[in-house]
Target: MBL fold metallo-hydrolase
Amino acid sequence: MKIMQMPLGPLQTNGYLIHNEDNRAIMIDPGGDGFKVLEVLKEKGLTLEAIVLTHAHFDHIGGINEIREEVNVPVFVHEKEKEWLTDPSKNGSGKFPGLDLISVNGEVETISGEETLKAGPFIFSMLETPGHSPGSVSFYMPRENVIFSGDVLFQGGVGRTDLPGGHTDTLLSSIHEKLLTLPDETIVANGHGPTTTIGEEKESNPFLNGF
Model:
């Protein structure tokens, strides 16, 4: 399995293109610039089979329509944020001047709970990690030793909680109860900035000390 980090959209949000040796692929959080994702798929000869969302803020969903105009694939989002995909006031694109209003076209697949998600050829353990948003989900792949955390946990930081549905105590509980219990060597592939590890954040993240 190979993972390609792709900064996309107005905030250069980290999207992740994952593919296997059979050239089957999925995309996590295409935040914008869908044409770039399509170009990479073509260049590498990959077949996109699904789009998976850690949450439904505008900077994580902005490339969906452009991608699905070319490749009709399912989109997976937590049930608590399904309506956000078509509501700019909830996904945030209607709150920041100068941004295009974002409304995702087409049907989506809702997910919830802490079971497994099969997206294309890949299987994830789903961890509900609310706090940054009500339906934030982190996707863990223990064999590959990586968790896709969206905007929950960053290198030296945590997700903001001043947007609709955000809650600081809930976020910190999610991090401590769901993420920091993973092996220290687990790679945290997050939504903004460089990747980190669970062990590194336990040791040095100033937002987590003293919680």
Observations:
- The radius of gyration is 16 Å.
